[in-house]
Structures are given as structure tokens and as C-alpha cells.
Design a protein that fits this description.
Helix content is 38%, strand content 12%. It is of the alpha+beta class and 64 residues long. It has a domain of 40 residues. Pathway: Carbohydrate biosynthesis. One of its GO terms (molecular function) is triose-phosphate isomerase activity.
Length: 64
């Protein structure tokens, strides 16, 4: 159980990009960020959802 969220960072990489040449578009990363923030708000609280850092680890295609 996490008692202090101040130093928590959520980092993720989509399973479908690991070891492939597939890339995500920014909208896909933003969608996952929104879902993670929603989960934090519903399961922890709104303050944690707003302040927890979320990092996408992977390649983004800005040309899409």
C-alpha cells in the first residue's frame, strides 16, 4: 500500500510495441494517460490523479 504518492511515477510501454517496429501516435498515449488518471481518481483520490507523473516509454510517431 502506498502511503505517500509524492514520489510515485507511473511508467508504461504498450505490449504491442515491445520488440516490434510499431509506434504509437500521441492520441494513443494521451488515451492511456487519461485512463490511468481516471483510475487514480476513482481508486485513490482526485489530488493524486492530478499530481502523479505518468510517463510513456516508447516511440511516438508525430507524422500520423
Amino acid at each position: 500500500k502506498i502511503s505517500n504518492w509524492d514520489n510515485v511515477v507511473l511508467a508504461y510501454e504498450p505490449v504491442w510495441v515491445i520488440g516490434t517496429r510499431k509506434v504509437a501516435i500521441p492520441a494513443q498515449a494521451q488515451e492511456v494517460h487519461a485512463e490511468l488518471q481516471k483510475w487514480l481518481k476513482e481508486n485513490v483520490n482526485a489530488e493524486v490523479a492530478a499530481s502523479t507523473r505518468i510517463i510513456y516509454r516508447g516511440i511516438l510517431s508525430l507524422l500520423c
